[in-house]
């Protein structure tokens, strides 16, 4: 019989899923079990934005999982090329959510990268960014300060959107002029919100003291958009909460985890958990707020599921770092997206601005991690419907990714740019003057995309709009008021 | 890299040519260099489809080319013909048969980039599309105009239209509307020597045509062995105004089968008549925690469509017939209720994999088709096979045309269980033949079912081989499939 794969001459006779001769172990079994789940149905081709940009089967989850399965063979020597292919992924989570066979593509691809990294090592440039900068928050902060110094030399303000500056030259990697946040005195750290309950941002607030919230700023807001931190504090205070920003916070670890460097991710995660735990343990009602859904996803999902879960063997994995499983889960259980939290805390009732006071057409861009991993879909829309009334217009294709994905935007600039352009055209099609979103990464990237299209629309974080409405600063313009000008 | 393990088997086509560096150079001249893939890792991503076989044993091409026009396809096939190199057309790679996998190596033509809808000629009930258009995209484009393309495969969101034609795919609506082939008015095809022909009339826009041999139907279901489809003229229909659903539960499989027979006898024509056996109901309920299905050996789902009064009438009548034997009957025509009733059926495909931890659904023995009255026997037979081999097989399918999808749940990490799975799959196929059925109702033969062709077709297989010989004498088009190569024996 000539039926391929069933010949007995061994030409194609090996079952890679049964390969475990020298590598048996609990974590390997778990990885193997996940890899075999993918039934190669091709559903992930439907919506993978990276596949759409490149059009090649290696770029879709099915192709990557098949490559990882191939490299289960002991005699195959994986290389940097393979590592590069596996990082052609924006980590938007769509394939995982829509997979008919229930394959946890998030875990399988991260674990695949981790195993691969052990054998081929991280490319030096990527290692400089992921480990050298994001692995040491002090350096990241110093880098931001340096950038603040040199920015005026090579960047000019964007008139339509004064908090962003545009490079004078096209950047070599991106082939585009690039927009960055206008860097200010970066990296300020306030351990407890200055104003305290009752005096939000200098405004008298009648809301009674309701409790304490812990805020994790995240690198982009902390260093690039400090006004988001101020807005969150203002917003929480207006709702009757005082805000604590713990000392000793570092990068959430997502860049390292997505790069397959679970060691760095674990170290950073443990440092964050240790810094936050006392505040949460002391106050069982305290929530942990985020302005960046990717950081929130790292804390709430990746820490318990992957970084201290499937990827390292659950219980004992964190002992060497001085934390236990209970601490990981306690912190994860308190994670809240700040926007959704504030809305559920009754922000609408506390707003000084009347419903519909934002006299602008606004649309909303769903951040991937907020929508799919944290499941926050309705609240942002309710906020905007409340604030802008009929001026709120739904954008088409709510699942579309802006193409940022952290290091993805630099490593795979072309695909990222085409995703960004497609998304910005969709958002533009609503005629909105303001593009509201709930992620500083999306906000920065959308600013770039809108600028490239020559659009006047500005991206704004929902938290800014909510803080403004709660404290009546919505018409002041500049950094204090996110949404300026009448319609 | 050790690639011998997954490279196509050259022995399948003894006199074939290889993709040498000189050939690669030529490919790059014919298609833009960035659309010619030759890196080993890129090739590995074209070494499988959804079949159990190629998941276990992938088979990589020597080159992948992503053409964007008929002219490019014709030039590429000519080049391959000149060198005797196998050419395998691939759409989205959703086949469950190994059909899109280059088991003899050679060149894969990834046609997914030819995805333009060329023309909607709705006054004449037809559309013209490129081969890589996704099925759901065509229906999305037609819906605003009030039209649709009736065949409805489960893989609608990713499968390509030319892939559907090449396998004569269908879906739930086949019971009323038939398979893909019935909607193919004409095809532009690149033949094995690179010539381009148009079937169904070179300039015709007619909806019927008996001028000459029906070459269109020859290429429908030919699985890429006779030519490469580069353009399709498809018939479309007006969208029904309304849809209704009837659900009925039965204590015995045979009662469900008898009910379906009675429904046709009562002169009713459901748009879909689906069955889920106990294993499938259990899978659906495990998958959707809130979902509750009536207890029983089988649940039937019917869809009716048409003008609103007709939908009400038909749904009521079907429910009435069901009540004679069912323990539980419900029907709905309100869209929300319809969706709720239909939920179990719509999730079952995804749900199957969840009922056994550490196992995976494999696509094998997944498409048998038997006479309607023997569906209960087939369902019972598959369950007996599952019990005998010690792993679950979830079965559901299109009882209205006797087409059943069985999903064995296998732990591929266990080589012994994989062996048992192969035996069970063979038993499922032989069960279908014993019940006067076929091994495949809508998925195709590919590699995985060719061993049954002699038994299914007898001397007719030799006629298939003569047709193949006439159109592709060198055997370069999708070799190793459908037992078409002379000298291949089961």
Low-confidence stretches of chain B: none
**Mean pLDDT of chain A, rounded to whole units?**
87
| Number of helical segments with 4 or more residues of chain A | 22
User: In CATH's first tier, which class of the largest domain in chain B applies?
Assistant: Alpha Beta
Query: Main β-sheet of chain B, in a few words?
Result: 7 strands, antiparallel
If you had to describe this structure to a student in words, what would you say it looks like?
The complex is a heterodimer of chains A (487) and B (490). Chain A has 487 residues and is an alpha/beta fold. Chain A folds into three domains: 16-121, Fumarate Reductase Iron-sulfur Protein, Chain B, domain 2 (Orthogonal Bundle), CATH 1.10.1060.10; 199-341; 348-471, Rossmann fold. In chain A, 47% of the residues lie in helices and 11% in strands. Chain A contains 22 helices and 13 strands. Chain A has helices at 26-37, 49-54, 61-70, 80-86, 94-98, 105-120, 124-133, 137-154, 219-224, 226-238, 254-258, 262-282, 293-310, 325-334, 338-344, 347-350, 368-373, 378-388, 408-411, 413-428, 440-452, 462-471, and strands at residues 155-158, 161-171, 176-181, 199-200, 203-204, 211-216, 241-244, 287-290, 335-337, 362-364, 392-393, 434-437, 458-461. Chain A has a four-stranded parallel beta sheet with strand order 7-6-8-9, with helices on both faces. Chain A starts with 25 loop residues before the first helix and ends in a 16-residue tail after the last helix. Chain B has three domains: 10-112, Uridine Diphospho-n-acetylenolpyruvylglucosamine Reductase, domain 2 (2-Layer Sandwich), CATH 3.30.43.10; 117-238, Uridine Diphospho-n-acetylenolpyruvylglucosamine Reductase, domain 3; 242-434, Vanillyl-alcohol Oxidase, Chain A, domain 3, CATH 3.40.462. Chain B contains 16 helices and 18 strands. Chain B has helices at 21-30, 40-44, 52-56, 70-83, 135-142, 161-166, 174-177, 215-219, 253-265, 278-287, 308-323, 335-351, 375-389, 415-434, 453-457, 460-471, and strands at residues 36-37, 63-65, 87-90, 107-110, 117-121, 126-129, 147-148, 184-190, 196-198, 228-235, 237-238, 242-250, 272-277, 298-306, 328-332, 360-361, 393-398, 403-410. In chain B, helix 1 packs antiparallel against helix 4 (70-83), helix 10 crosses helix 12 and helix 13 (375-389) packs antiparallel against helix 14 (415-434). The chains are: A alpha/beta (487), B alpha+beta (490). At the A-B interface, helix 1, helix 3 and helix 4 of A face helix 2, helix 3, strand 16 and helix 14 of B.
